Amino acid sequence: MEKQNIRLRFLSYLVIAYMMMAFTWWTVLLFTKNRDAFEAKSQLMKIGMIAEGVIKNDAQFVASAQYESLSKHYTRQEWMIVGEAVVFVISLVFGVYLINRGYNKEMIASQQSRNFLLSITHELKSPIASIRLVLETLLKRELPREKTTQLQGNALKETERLNTLVNNLLFSAKLESTYQANKEPLDLHELLEEIISKLSDKYPDASFTFKQEGEMPYFQGDKMGMISVALNLLENAVKYSGNGGKANIEAHLSMQEDGQIKLEIKDQGVGIPEKEKKQIFQKFYRVGNEDTRTAKGTGLGLYIVDQIIRAHSGRISVHDNLPRGSVFEILLPTG
Ligand code: ADP
To answer: pTM, whole model, 2 decimals?
Structure first.
């Protein structure tokens, strides 16, 4: 596939180069023909004028009004040829640029869906395989009570993973068609505290700090949506801390002077390259390549977060945390 693409590209560049060369040749030819025509015409004119006795020598001919008008006409034609050539080259270059841009977009989209397929297959298959293994073990062997409980716990965790994945998939499909923020007054402080306490149990190696500045009014928002936003951002912060689950995560809630609520989730993890900071909010987008990526995921989380925030007329952005890691910043209007 890749080889075929390269060949196609090479062929199209060859055709373009040929067109350029052919066009240059035609332009040069037109130039010389134009000059020949001018010279022939001026010679004819000179002979005629000498015969009529209007002029006597070359100097008088060059100074004559007839010659001046002919020469003007010739120069105008020369400029027309140059103009045509420039327009042609510009439109060709612009056309090639547009085709290239479309082609690159297409390539990125197909790479993303390939990445998505690879990750989704893996994400779906591995919990199913684990649950199956647990069930087979439990069926085949009589195990001590402790071991059985441990295995059941593992299977339960895997089912949870599957559930989250399927929910995310369904949610993202819904976001495109029927999602509407089901708004109710929310106490964001309480909501975040609850989520963080659950996550602290789930990730015992990670340390979460939650701070709030000043008073916080009730926020009119969709509870399920807001939970999904916080969960996705906080779990990403753990996942991309790259320290075997050991992570330092801060959540910071504050009220802006302009009446907007600001929520920041800071981690000290691997960070996000500058040029990918916008792309990570696209559906299925994951930094790097699926084959080289270690953290599990589908690239749906941040897409969902972004869509939910938009449905609340808010904005989400990401910037670098110092000395390392990322800060996800959400601004939500209250009015
Ligand atoms: P997933 O985590 O399933 O891959 P997301 O949409 O949640 O999908 O995230 C998209 C990508 O953004 C991730 O694959 C990861 O590369 C990057 N990313 C998200 N959160 C962080 C973070 N806190 N630190 C570094 N990279 C992150």
So the answer is: 0.67
CA of 229 to the centre of ligand 1 (A): 13
Collect all residues with Cβ–Cβ distance below 8 Å to 34 and sequence separation of at least 6: 74, 77, 78, 81
In the chain, alpha helices (H)? 2-52, 58-63, 65-140, 145-177, 188-202, 223-239, 301-311
Query: What does DSSP say about strands 248-255 and 260-266: parallel, antiparallel, or unpaired?
Result: antiparallel
Antiparallel, parallel or unpaired: β 183-186 and 315-320: unpaired
What tokens does 123 get? 């994400």
* Bridge partners (DSSP) listed for residue 333: 260
Q: For 262, phi and psi rounded to 5 degrees?
A: -115, 130
CB 266 within 8 A of CB 327: yes
- The per-residue DSSP string of 164-176 comes to HHHHHHHHHHHHH
**pLDDT at residue 291 in the model:** 60
Instruction: State in Å: Cα 290 to ligand 1 middle.
Output: 12
CA 180 to centroid of ligand 1, rounded, Å? 25
All structural domains of the chain, each given as residue ranges with its CATH number in brackets, are 1-178 (no CATH), 183-332 (3.30.565.10)
- Site residues for ligand 1, CB cut-off 6 Å: 232, 236-237, 240, 267, 269-272, 280, 285-287, 297-303, 326
* pLDDT tens digit sequence for 131-190: 999 999 999 988 889 999 999 999 998 998 888 888 888 888 888 777 888 899 999 999
What are the Cα distances from residue 20, in Å, to 39, 90, 95, 136?
Answer: 29, 11, 13, 69
